[in-house]
């Protein structure tokens, strides 16, 4: 009985680690400096236990490259300005 309980416990722990691996931090590499006019969508994801800082994911659109997603560093001044600009822009209903 103890062997069965130990095996089930090990199986449960392995499943927990496998599910945590699938939800990794998307922002392992930070994106480039961007133009505010190219922003289509901005997502702010909270900090997770496996992620050092919050994730700011921006979707850009350009004629040449089409739609692209980039992660931005939340501590950079340009990102802080983008967040302020985007909030004002959304309040105006655009």
UniProtKB/TrEMBL annotation:
<feature type="signal peptide">
    <location>
        <begin position="1"/>
        <end position="22"/>
    </location>
</feature>
<protein>
    <submittedName>
        <fullName>CXL14 protein</fullName>
    </submittedName>
</protein>
<dbReference type="InterPro" id="IPR036048">
    <property type="entry name" value="Interleukin_8-like_sf"/>
</dbReference>
<dbReference type="GO" id="GO:0008009">
    <property type="term" value="F:chemokine activity"/>
</dbReference>
<feature type="domain" description="Chemokine interleukin-8-like">
    <location>
        <begin position="24"/>
        <end position="86"/>
    </location>
</feature>
<dbReference type="Pfam" id="PF00048">
    <property type="entry name" value="IL8"/>
</dbReference>
<dbReference type="InterPro" id="IPR001811">
    <property type="entry name" value="Chemokine_IL8-like_dom"/>
</dbReference>
<dbReference type="GO" id="GO:0006955">
    <property type="term" value="P:immune response"/>
</dbReference>
<keyword id="KW-0202">Cytokine</keyword>
<keyword id="KW-0732">Signal</keyword>
<dbReference type="GO" id="GO:0005615">
    <property type="term" value="C:extracellular space"/>
</dbReference>
